[in-house]
Automatic annotation (TrEMBL):
Domain named ABC transporter: residues: 2-230
Protein name from the UniProt record: ABC transporter ATP-binding protein
Keywords of the record: ATP-binding, Nucleotide-binding, Transport
Taxonomic source organism: Cytobacillus citreus
Origin: domain of life: Bacteria
PROSITE patterns listed in its UniProt record: ABC_TRANSPORTER_2 (PS50893)
Position of the signal peptide: none
InterPro entries: AAA+_ATPase, ABC_transporter-like_ATP-bd, ABC_Transporter_VariousFunc, P-loop_NTPase
SUPFAM superfamilies assigned to the protein according to its UniProt record, in alphabetical order: P-loop containing nucleoside triphosphate hydrolases
Length: 290
């Protein structure tokens, strides 16, 4: 299986935060969801991926090319969608097209106007008058009109109402019908990834905790529920984190098979959501009294 992107032991430090030996890959022809709490390092990773920040150490290759040596050639093959509008808001779509289209050798007006029409976006209206949903549709139209092989999306559905979000996800599904396309989808709305993601990469505290096939991940992790009488200090160490109440405990395990061996039929083990995995990993042990 071909990897479009390879991060190998990449480090980037700031005053109060650092990425530490970040390594993961993005597989060609699939949607990889990128999750993590605010401040975990998602935006920094994406800026490194786009070569908007300089790494301090490690290696980043895209399409098998060294990022530093082939920056322009790589960006010709990438589409980028950011959660905030990064276009001149006093211009119209028609005026923006005159600026952006010449930047790409493979710009395709047929693709561009297909989506402008599909999204019913007014070409002559200034962008500052657009709703957030309209701005996101416009950004996607520009990002995919040079027929990119790799599409990077940073929080594309953030702040959108459910109808807009569903439309965006359906569009991404249609794009992926071309099995040569690859999408890297950073989001805190993990339910969106249930619809489209094939792989999940999870960053926490500047480190990659895992990068796995989504179905495999959700079969390995589990929410274990049972009586606190079943716990001791050694057993508690088997969990990612645990939440205790006066009626029992809930815990996240990263090894469902082992939990079944330990507890047998004395506990209930439920399939987790991505939100569950993030919540327990971020919170650690919580003790409640209600």
């Amino acid at each position: 299986m071909t990897n479009v992107v390879e991060f190998k032991r990449v480090t980037k430090s700031f005053k109060n935060f650092s990425l530490k030996d970040v390594s993961f890959s993005i597989k060609k022809g699939y949607v990889t969801g990128f999750i993590g709490a605010n401040g975990a390092g998602k935006s920094t990773t994406i800026k490194l991926l786009m070569n908007l920040l300089r790494k301090e150490s490690g290696e980043i290759t895209i399409f098998g090319l060294d990022q530093d040596k082939h920056n322009q050639a790589i960006k010709e093959r990438i589409g980028f969608v950011y959660d905030e509008n990064c276009f001149y808001e006093t211009l119209s779509i028609r005026e923006l097209r005159k600026i952006i289209a010449p930047m790409y050798q493979n710009w395709n007006d047929d693709i561009f106007y297909k989506y402008i029409d599909q999204f019913q976006l007014p070409e002559k209206q200034v962008i500052k008058s657009f709703s957030k949903g309209m701005k996101m549709k416009m950004a996607i139209s520009f990002a995919i009109s040079h027929d990119p092989e790799f599409i990077i999306m940073d929080e594309p559905t953030s702040g959108l109402d459910p109808v807009f979000r569903r439309e965006i996800l359906e569009l991404l599904h249609d794009i992926m019908l071309d099995e040569q396309k690859t999408i890297f989808f950073s989001t805190h709305i993990t339910t969106d990834l249930d619809r489209i993601a094939d792989y999940i990469t999870y960053i926490h505290g500047g480190r990659i905790l895992f990068s796995k096939e989504r179905d495999e991940l959700l079969s390995e992790y589990g929410i274990v529920k049972g009586s606190t009488d079943l716990l001791d200090s050694d057993i508690e160490k088997e969990f990612v984190s645990i939440r205790k109440t006066n009626v029992g405990f809930e815990a996240l395990t990263s090894d469902v098979k082992k939990s079944k061996e330990i507890f047998g039929h004395e506990v209930l083990i439920e399939k987790p959501t991505l939100d569950d995995i993030m919540y327990y990993t971020n919170k650690g042990e919580l003790t409640c009294t209600h």
